[in-house]
Amino acid sequence: MTKAKSTTKAEQVGQLLSRKNGASLEDICKTTRWKPHSARAFLSGLRKRGFVIAREQDASKVSRYRITAKPEAQS
């Protein structure tokens, strides 16, 4: 019997942020079971690593985050 490869929380957040509508802080917290301050810290870490994260508000004034550019490969 083969064991299925588990997805890390970082990969899960990356998938959420790559969606067309992105993800709210609540989406990230529900998926990862992180507290809001940990989710925001993770977003900051992505920015420091070169990801461009857009923050937009939807019609209900909820902030949604999504990756708009990935870091350039360094040679």
Write a concise synopsis of the structure shown.
With 75 residues, the chain is α+β, with helices and mostly antiparallel strands. The protein has helices at 9-17, 25-32, 36-48, and strands spanning 23-24, 52-57, 63-69.
Verbal overview:
This protein has one domain: Arc Repressor Mutant, subunit A (Orthogonal Bundle), CATH 1.10.10. 13% of the residues are buried. The chain has helices at residues 9-17, 25-32, 36-48; strands at 23-24, 52-57, 63-69. The protein is built from three helices and three strands, in the order αβααββ. Strands 1-3-2 form a three-stranded antiparallel β-sheet. By secondary structure, it is α+β, with helices and mostly antiparallel strands. Helices cover 40% and strands 20% of the residues.
Which percent bin holds the helix content? 40-55%
| CATH C-level name | Mainly Alpha
Strand order, largest beta sheet:
1-3-2
CATH architecture: Orthogonal Bundle
Rg (CA only): 14 Å
Sketch the major β-sheet. Answer: 3 strands, antiparallel
Q: What is the average of the pLDDT values?
A: 92
Low-pLDDT segments: none
* Annotated CATH topology: Arc Repressor Mutant, subunit A
Q: Globular, elongated, flat, extended or rod-shaped: what is the shape?
A: globular
Give the tally of structural domains.
1
Helix-strand category: alpha+beta
Listing every helix as H and every strand as E from the N terminus to the C terminus, the arrangement reads HEHHEE
> What is the CA-CA span between the terminal residues?
40 Å
Per DSSP E runs of 2 or more residues, the count of β-strands stands at 3
Strand proportion, as a percent range, falls in: 15-25%
**Number of helices in the DSSP assignment:** 3
Oligomer: single chain
